[in-house]
Amino acid sequence: MDHFVVQPSGPLSGKVSVSGAKNSALKLMAASLLAEGTFSFDNVPMNADVGVMAQTLSAIGCSVQIAEPDICVVAVPEVLEPEAPYELVTRMRASINVLGPLIGRLGQARVALPGGDAIGSRKLDMHFRGLRAMGVDLTVRHGYIEAFVPDRLKGVTHTLEFPSVGATENIMTAAVLANGVTVIENAAREPEIAQLASMLNRMGGEILGAGSPRIEIRGVDHLEAVHETVIPDRIEAGTFVMVCAIAGGEIEILGARPDDMDMLIAKMSEMGVLIAPTAEGIWVKRTGELKAADVATLPHPGLATDFMPPLVAVLTVAEGRSIVTENIFDGRFAFVDELVRMGAHIRTEGGHCIIKGVPRLSGAQVRALDVRAGAALVLAGMVADVPTTIHDPVHIDRGYVNLVDKLSGLGVKIERVVSHPFDYADY
Ligand code: EPU
């Protein structure tokens, strides 16, 4: 298996560019199912998850072409197969985002139930409640979600129990072709939701308020294929901010949008990191000691849960005691044990972890459990005494494009060691 080797690094310098947002590209691609025609997307991050979404759309009947460096073309036929198979949904949960578009366009869908993953149980009850309120007959049988609408979907006012990103997206993409007006109260406000609504509107949809807690969707009869440019990845941009925070130095992150990560910037400033907007992105500098901080993850515009693992890595070497509270996913502290193997002083208590900063970590062999946990280990390796080996980088590949090249360009000493499959002929 491939692995990463990260050596002690810093201070850093230089510029790094942000790729398109994985969590926007996946949803835009899924929403293309809503209209017959040829969609094209640019600024698509060519990571493993985008590849799985391309395969999912192909299984449904689309023809998908991925052209380097960042273009994806999805040709959606008139007739679609309303099924997303287990092999694909289990490889990437975001395949569940085809549910809303399939129900909206075809009135039926059969989508494998993804199950939990390394960060939590990840239920879908809010997706189901919203769709059922719109008249969908939805059951779970033999590991599949089977959904059917006897007539056209009907618009309703529906309040989400929690501002779930996925539930907001599935309800919105189903409602865009419904009969009447759907209102989602307590909707998720992530920038990726605003981009999805903006694309749906350019396709002919009538959606107001996306990006706020109240989204109003007036159903239309017909949508058309469009071209869309994926927004910059705020999580990747924030990861680079934290790379500079932990290793020190001064960098510019091109394409980063400070407004999409206000809370991370506020916390980093509290910890002693200087951040300012530039004409092309943001500038980050850290020369002094890092200070401890208490942080809690919350739905946008609160501190994104996807920032939490790398932030915990940064706090392991901040002076003082920090308390980190995870409010979104019930299993997201599993990666902490890998940092403890590297000498971090961290104690977890339910949804909290208490971190006592140490001057330096201790390089070790560790394992990336999920995409953001993997990023946390890369950061930790930069402030360890000896090289750190990170196994299972396949998880990191899911969310970061060319991470090794991008970080190397800033002065991080990181390499990917490619392993060759076992072959008897070698012996
Ligand atoms: N939840 C329920 N029932 C539901 C839906 C959600 O209980 O019906 C719970 C979840 O179990 C979780 C919380 O609500 O505890 C939040 O889930 P949400 O639906 O908001 O998240 P998601 O749509 O599954 C997306 C991102 C995640 C990101 C979260 C939160 C994608 C593909 N995934 O997940 O990104 O952490 O929103 O912002 O967009 C990542 O990129 O590494 C990643 C995990």
Characterization of this structure:
The chain has helices at residues 22-31, 48-60, 86-89, 99-106, 125-133, 165-175, 191-202, 234-247, 262-270, 308-315, 336-341, 371-382, 394-397, 403-408, and strands at residues 3-6, 12-17, 37-42, 63-67, 71-76, 83-84, 108-112, 137-141, 144-148, 157-159, 181-185, 206-208, 214-218, 227-229, 249-254, 274-277, 281-286, 295-296, 321-325, 345-349, 352-356, 365-367, 388-391, 414-417. The model has no long low-confidence stretch (mean pLDDT 96). It is built from 14 helices and 24 strands. Helix 10 runs parallel beside helix 12. The radius of gyration is 22 Å and the shape is globular. The strands form 6 sheets. It has a 4-stranded mixed sheet with strand order 22-23-1-24. It folds into 2 domains: 3-18 and 233-417, Enolpyruvate transferase domain (UDP-n-acetylglucosamine1-carboxyvinyl-transferase, Chain); 22-218, UDP-n-acetylglucosamine1-carboxyvinyl-transferase, Chain, CATH 3.65.10.10. It is α/β, with parallel strands linked by helices. 30% of the residues lie in helices and 25% in strands. The two termini are 18 Å apart. Strand 10 (157-159), helix 6 and strand 11 form a beta-alpha-beta unit. The structure holds uridine-diphosphate-2(N-acetylglucosaminyl) butyric acid. Uridine-diphosphate-2(N-acetylglucosaminyl) butyric acid binds at residues 23, 26, 94, 120-127, 162, 164-167, 188, 304-306, 328-329, 371-372, 399.
